[in-house]
Amino acid sequence: MEVLTTQNFFDGHTLHGPSALSLNDGHISKIESYLGAPEFHLLSPGFLDLQMNGFDAVDISDATVEQLIDLDNQLLALGTTHWLATVITAPLDRLEQRVRFLDDVCRSGRVPGLVGIHIEGPFLGRAPGAHNTEWIVPIDMEWLHRLPDSVRLITIAPEQEQAIAATSFLVGRGIAVSMGHTRPSATEMELMIVAGANMVTHLYNGMSGVHHRETGMALRALVDPRISTGLIADLAHVSPDAVRLAFAAKGGDGVCLVSDTVAWNTERAKRRGIQIVNGSPQLVDGTLAGSSTSLSQCVQRSVHVAGVGLEDALKAATATPSRVLQRPEYSRVAEGDTANLVAMNDALCVTGAWRALVSHRA
Predict the structure, then answer these.
(1) Structural domain tally of the chain?
(2) Which of 11, 158, 200, 256 is the most exposed place for a label (fewest CB within 10 A)?
(3) Where does the pLDDT of residue 276 fall: very low under 50, low under 70, confident under 90, or very high at 90 and above?
(4) Using CA atoms, how far apart are residues 353 and 78, in angstroms rounded to an integer?
C-alpha cells in the first residue's frame, strides 16, 4: 500500500484542502483529511487529452506499436493518463487503414493510456487551416458505417451536406461529434447541435469567430450551454485574454482543454516545412500546424498567465473531456476507483503521475 499526502486535492469536481489518499493494488482504498506536512502541493485526476496528434518524434499517423508505447510513457510523465489518438485529413482509404491499426492497438491493451480515436477530417468545411484541401471530401456514410468501436470522437463541419444525418448516426453509436474547421450558418449550427453535436474543435481556430452582429461558430460556442469548447491554451493558438474569455463564458464545466500536440521532430514534419517558431509548430507560410505544449502546460498557463481559477482549469482537463466522451470514470477520484492521478507543485509543474499500477515520479 502507498499513501499520498497533499496540500490540495481535486476529486474531479471540487478542490479540497490537505488530504491523504491510500492506494492499494492500483485502486484508491481510502481518502481522508491530513494534518501533517504533505508530500505534494496538489493531487488531481490524471488529465484526459482528446486531441493528441503525436509528440516530439512520434507521429500518430505512422507510429508503430512500440512508438505508441513510448508516447504513452512520455504522456504519463507529463500527467496525461488517458488520451485519444487523433488522425487528421487524408485520403479515405489511407485513413481507414490507419484507424483499423489504431483500433487493434486499443483492443490489445498494450498502450493503456490510449482509450480511443479522434478523427479530425476529412469531412471539413470552409476553414481548413493546415489540413490538405485536396483531401477534404463530402461525407461518406458507408465509410462512417465501417468505423470500429474504438472511434470515440469525430470532427465534422456543419456545412457538409450530410452533416445532420452523420451526426445522428454517430451519436446513436456512442461516438461524440465535434464541429470544427467550419464557417457555418446559424441554421447549420443549430441543426447539428440538435442532432447531438456536443463540442467544437479548438475554439477560435479553424472557425468563424466572435462578431457583434454575426453568429460565428466561436460566438455560438461561447454562449450555448449544450456544447463544450475545445481549447488549445498554449497561448500561441489563443491569447491569454481569449483563454480568460472562454472560461468566463463557459466555466470549467464548459471548456475542454486539449493539447493538439503534433510530432514536430520527424522527417515527415520537415518535408512539410514544419518548424518551431516562438514555441509553436508552424508551416512555412506561418499557419499554425498543431502545438508542442503538453496538456499539463495548458493547465499551468491557463492559471498562471491567463488568470483562470485552479478548480476550473483542472475541470477543463479532467471532468469536462470525460463528460464529452460519456466516460466519467476517467476523471473521477473516489474510494474504490482506479488510481489515475497527477501530482503538481505550486508552479503547476508535474511531479508525479499514477495510472493503476504504473507510476512515474519526477
Answers:
(1) 2
(2) 11
(3) confident
(4) 8
Could you tell me which of 202, 180, 200 has the C-alpha nearest to residue 298? 202
Tens digits of per-residue pLDDT, 299-340? 999 999 999 999 999 999 999 999 999 999 999 899 999 999
- 122 burial type by CB count under 10 A (0-12 exposed, 13-18 middle, 19+ buried): buried
Q: What are phi and psi of 317, to 5 degrees?
A: -105, 0
CATH code at position 247 = 3.20.20.140
Tell whether 125 and 86 lie within a shared domain: yes
264 shares its domain with 349: no
CB 75 within 8 A of CB 46: no
pLDDT confidence tier of residue 268, bands split at 50, 70 and 90: confident
DSSP 3-state assignment of 4? strand
* Residue 4, all three cell numbers: 499520498
Give the pTM.
0.96
Per-residue cell: 280: 509553436
**Could you tell me if 68 and 165 lie in one domain?**
yes
Structural domain range at position 95: 46-331
Residues 214 and 72 in one domain: yes
Same domain (yes/no): 31, 50 = no
pLDDT digits (tens, 9 = 90+) for 112-132: 999 999 999 999 999 998 899
> Which of 173, 138, 134 has its CA nearest to residue 153?
173
- Could you give the angle at the alpha carbon of 174 between the alpha carbons of 126 and 86, nearest 5°? 50
Same domain, 12 and 147: no
Pairing between β-strand 80-88 and β-strand 58-59 as defined by DSSP bridges: unpaired
200-220 CB burial, b ≥16 within 10 A, e <16? bbbbbbbbbebeeeebbbbbb
